[in-house]
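Support case: N-carbamoyl-L-aspartate complex. Customer-provided input:
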Amino acid sequence: MQSAQQTILRDAMRLLNLTRDALTERLGVSRRALDSWLLPDNSNEHRSMPTIVERFLAEILSQDTKVAPAHHVSTANWAPHLLSVEQFSRESVEELFRIADIMQPVARRQKTCRVLEGAVLANLFFEASTRTRISFGAAFCRLGGSVCDTTGFTFSSMAKGESIYDTSRVVSGYADVIVVRHPEQGAVAEFAEASNIPIINGGDGPGEHPTQALLDLYTMEREFSRLNKLIDGSHIALVGDLKHGRAAHSLAKLLGLYQGLKITLLAPTGLEMPASILDAASRNGNVIECTDNLASGLAGADVIYATRVQKERMQGEVMEGYGENFQINLRAVDTFCKPDVIVMHPLPRDSRPGANDLSTDLNQDPRLAIFRQTDNGVPVRMAIFAKLLGVDQQIQHSLRDISWVHPQKLGPNDASFDEL
Ligand code: NCD
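Agent response - structure generated as follows:
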């Protein structure tokens, strides 16, 4: 089976670093035509890309000698374990996103895939989790595998004093891949030292959360494609507890792989981003701005990436300055931001009164991308499993139509533009 046209087009835009408008110009087609080729197969507006255009696109790609196709570039640097975004190059990120694009029809319940039939995932979550644990499990199941898990220390033998080494080696005998979340920074790397099967960092204390950052970046890329923008040259505002937020740490480091960015770090005094992460983010000459002024910090931003205050990680820190004036809500977005800003958050958001986390008053607003972001967790984590377990080349051939009924829109407030 040929690669879906959406995957071919998205991959071409990535490899050539072109917006949709720029690609239509290179191809000599209308933007409307390109948009219709990029829509999912089951959309009413979907059209097939003519073979002549596909051939022309292949020619452009082969002529552009400066651009090496990402899938021909070695990506061994992030295997066998996935512990940190520091293992990634721009090419390996782009290759992963290409595989995630191929996974989209499976994640969206248009196709099934059984490339991991018989494989077992062990989910070891020693800290609270909803989306990371479930989306890793769902991603593995949708590839045909099965999931075993344990949650919290109370229900694992660690409560009896078992070491990380013993736990990791024991579970390695039962599973083919292990996802670990642990409250201590560095603990997941310790699990990896005791195992030859792939260990994935599902969040290690205030350290890193690499798979969250990858799905965040993938979400930005997809949202930007719709808005005719590129990640290179964009303005990203990270807001909130940037001291303890591991998702923000991994994301800031990943952004350092891109060029010409303005990264605004909006945190109240005491919750600022650690200096070592600023260094990684400012690679490639990216401009970093640190402020606690929401009005000036959000001005001109293409993305607001809000985060939760990580009270559970605080040891006597005072949170002065994290008042109502720090909340991302409809008024702040309307007053301070460009009309095409997108609002993201790794979630969970603290919706209790006084938390001043991302407000629910943006729930009906198409600029709010948080549920498109959580949806993207599945294809990105499927792509990670496929790469780590070496089945990424088999996916295309293993896709089958689904046989059950599912709704077109997953949530009642989902924006109607969806793919566009
Ligand atoms: C984050 C985490 O656990 O680091 N959530 C997530 O995995 N999506 C953010 C948080 O807990 O605030």
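The chain is about 35% helix and 10% strand.

Case will auto-close in a few days if no follow-up is received.
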